[in-house]
Amino acid sequence: MITPEILKKAIRNVPDFPKKGIQFKDITTLLKQPDLLRYVIDNTTKYYEDKGITKIVAIESRGFITGGALAEKLGAGFVPVRKPGRLPAEVFKKSYALEYGENCIEIHRDALVPEDIVLLHDDLLATGGTALAAIDLISRFNVQQVYCCFIIELDFLKGREKIMPLYDVFSLVHF
Ligand code: AMP
User: Fold this and answer.
1) Which ranges constitute the DSSP H helices of the chain?
2) Active site includes 99?
3) Which pLDDT score is estimated for 67?
4) Which pLDDT score, from 0 to 100, does residue 124 have?
5) Per-residue pLDDT, 109
6) Ligand 1, from 65, 124, 161: best to mutate by most atoms within 8 Å of Cβ?
7) Do residues 40 and 170 make contact, with C-beta atoms less than 8 angstroms apart?
């Protein structure tokens, strides 16, 4: 039987990537195992199946991998949030601060409608800066509800505290 502990052990830790001091959580070692990939999708779906999700909004690039599978399984549409200059039509933009410097993400202006119930998805929640920026983009559409889910949450960075209690957060694995 697969458990969150088995999932956790399947995630590779790469020290000092992409820069010194970062413990990078590499999910490729999990994704390549069909039973573990299925566990991620099935258990996340279970949490949301009664919530009426109409769109998965996934963050480039690792969020796209599981985001597509979640959308299909929940019977929802898929909406990409991408780095600047990659979406071809008109976009809303949001800049946000990183530890060093700034980042920017974009969403198509016709991606969502006010009737949508949105599940924001990324592979990992760290400080919460990326998720908050994505929530800012989603909120421009006045949607009904926003939920947030991740495969991994780095509890010590307290990203969850920035997002809750306004938006529910669900993660399968905690470090
Ligand atoms: P944050 O905005 O600080 O919550 O960072 C979340 C984003 O950065 C996600 O898109 C993650 O994929 C990526 N990220 C941040 N820290 C890590 C880490 N230690 N390992 C892997 N990805 C990370």
Assistant:
1) 4-10, 28-31, 34-48, 62-74, 129-139, 159-163
2) yes
3) 98
4) 98
5) 98
6) 124
7) no
Domain count, the chain: 1
State yes or no: is 62 an active-site residue: yes
CA–centroid distance, 45 to ligand 1, in Å, is: 22
- Which of the following is catalytic: 12, 62, 86, 161? 62
The answer to whether residue 25 sits within a structural domain is: no
17 lies in some domain: no
pTM, to two decimals = 0.97
- Average pLDDT by consecutive 10-residue portion of the chain (175 residues)? 96 96 96 98 98 98 98 98 98 90 96 98 97 98 98 97 94 98
- For residue 46, being part of any structural domain is answered with no
**Residue-level pLDDT at 100:** 72
Question: Whole domain around residue 86: which residue ranges?
Answer: 51-174
User: Which pLDDT belongs to residue 142?
Assistant: 98
Atom of ligand 1 nearest to the CA of 26: 21
- Contact yes or no for 109/81 (Cβ under 8 A): no
Q: Counting atoms of ligand 1 from 1, which one is nearest the CA of 22?
A: 19
Question: Would you state the pLDDT for residue 149?
Answer: 98
For ligand 1, residues with CB inside 6 Å are: 22-25, 59, 62, 122-131, 159
Q: Kindly state the helix (H) or strand (E) to which residue 171 belongs, with its residue range.
A: strand 168-174
CATH number at residue 67: 3.40.50.2020
Please provide the size of the chain in residues: 175
Amino acid occupying residue 45:
T
